[in-house]
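Standup notes
- DV: blocked on the single-chain target, sequence here:
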Amino acid sequence: METLGDDGIGIGSGGESDKERQEETEEEAALLRDRLLLSVISIASSHAKTLGMTISEPVVACIADLAFKQAEQMGRDVELFAQHAGRKSVNMEDVILSAHRNEHLMGLLRDFAQELKGKEPCTERKRTKKALKNENKVQEPIEMLD
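- DV (later): unblocked, structure below
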């Protein structure tokens, strides 16, 4: 059993591991945020260069921050949709459903999903119970003439 201290942090069984896990998660989020910032800087700089413009660092940082927050929210939504459906893993329909606020994005995701389905190798169709029953029926014996 876990006992809570005055600060609300668990003392005893696993309180420290929760704190370590939280720190690890925060470190991963910071790393992802930094990588996204570098990508946004690269994309924004190259796009501005092709247009013959410059872009200020605070604007790029703001765009990267907005993109990161949007991705976090989308991740939470997708996870909740899968959970609501009683699944532990996320599938393509969860991702499409998470874009319900943006019809254009939802359409693009549906097209992409259809494109992926078209590229999947055709697998043998599953046989229905009816087909299995027909296969398992005993055929009448054939009379052979001498």
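- Follow-up: Helices lie at 15-51, 57-84, 92-98, 103-119, 129-136.
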